Amino acid sequence: MGTQLAIRFRESYVSHKKAMAPQVRNHLLRLVPDDELLRVLDVCERVKLTPRQVLHHYMLPMEHVYFIERGLVSVAARVGREKFVEVWLIGSEGLVGAPVLLAARAAPLHRRTVQVTGEALRIKTPEFCELLETLPHLRSVVERYLAVVLAQTSQSGACNSYHSIKQRLARWLLIAQNATGEDEMPLTHGVLAELLGVRRASVTECLEVLQKDGTVTTRRGSVKIEDATELSVLSCDCFKLIEREYRRLLPVLDASCSAPRAPVDLGKPVLVDREPRRSSE
After folding, report:
1. Where are the alpha helices (DSSP H) in the chain?
2. Range 195-202 contact pairs with CB under 8 angstroms and sequence separation of 24 or more
3. Whether 197 contacts 156, CB under 8 Å
4. For the packed helices 165-180 and 238-249, what is the interaxial angle rounded to 10 degrees?
5. Whole-model pTM?
6. What is the DSSP track for 58-96?
7. 3 state SS of 234
């Protein structure tokens, strides 16, 4: 009797996990074949993300990794005592904690903080590392994503030292739009200034110019992109370079499709230019 109950429980559990697979929104997991995806879902838990929640603290081991389903997480580097500046962003296109691939117990030099409410699939770091050892397609996807992260951080560093605040703000808004899939972001001028490492007054001045041009609209606690094409023109080339590298290394799937049943061919990256999305009327 006990054995039959155990079998039924296991069958029900497996059925539940299979039902979860088509609902996965994280782009990296959607590139993984079903057999590997079910292994991932078997050890993960869905958690809510709240603004200002710190997922990884500076110089403390990363206990979990997070495949973002909705929301936005900023990764910030320490530049002074209690002062951090954003170096890259993570949304449903990515993974919070990818560097564990290189050193599972290393203490990160970055702080990872939730900026926009959402949810994620969370996995304990030791279990995630075990998955990487046994699931070759998952490992390939994470390795390619890590290459994208390195490209984004280096390009962002060059951008911050060379381009104007308005160009950097435009780049940041476009990347955030891509990461969240939303045109409106619930972020204050103060938070944007903190992420960009500039004065709040400078951000307010730039947003006023962009709003006057009809590119964005702002209201208390949020910024909405009205014309992504024009914002791309005002931005520097860094956004396009980062987006192009992502699309070259990681295929872009139709968001309406369920998780793939066979491995996506990652051996033939295609370089595709992407026009920024225009907000719906």
Report:
1. 2-20, 27-30, 34-43, 125-134, 136-162, 165-180, 189-196, 200-212, 228-234, 238-249
2. 195/74, 195/76, 195/85, 195/86, 195/115, 196/85, 196/86, 196/165, 196/168, 196/169, 196/172, 197/79, 197/85, 197/86, 197/160, 198/165, 202/165
3. no
4. 30
5. 0.81
6. TTS---EEEEEEEEEEEEEEEEETTEEEEEEEESTTSEE
7. helix
The token pair that represents 212 in the structure block: 């006057």
Helix (H, G, I), strand (E, B) or coil at 245: helix
CB 169 within 8 A of CB 192: yes
Give the chain's length.
281
For residues 106 and 99, what is the distance between their CA atoms, to the nearest angstrom?
9
Question: Alpha-carbon distance 211 to 136, whole Å?
Answer: 47
Q: Give the relative orientation of helices 125-134 and 136-162 as an angle to the nearest 10 degrees.
A: 120
Within the chain, which residues score under 50 in pLDDT?
A: 6-7, 9-14, 16-18, 254-263, 269-276, 278-281
Q: Are 259 and 34 in contact (CB under 8 A)?
A: yes
In sign, the C-alpha dihedral spanning 127, 130, 131, 132 is: positive
Amino acid at 236: C
Q: How many Å apart are CA 84 and CA 33, to the nearest integer?
A: 38
- Per DSSP bridges, beta strands 184-185 and 83-90 are unpaired
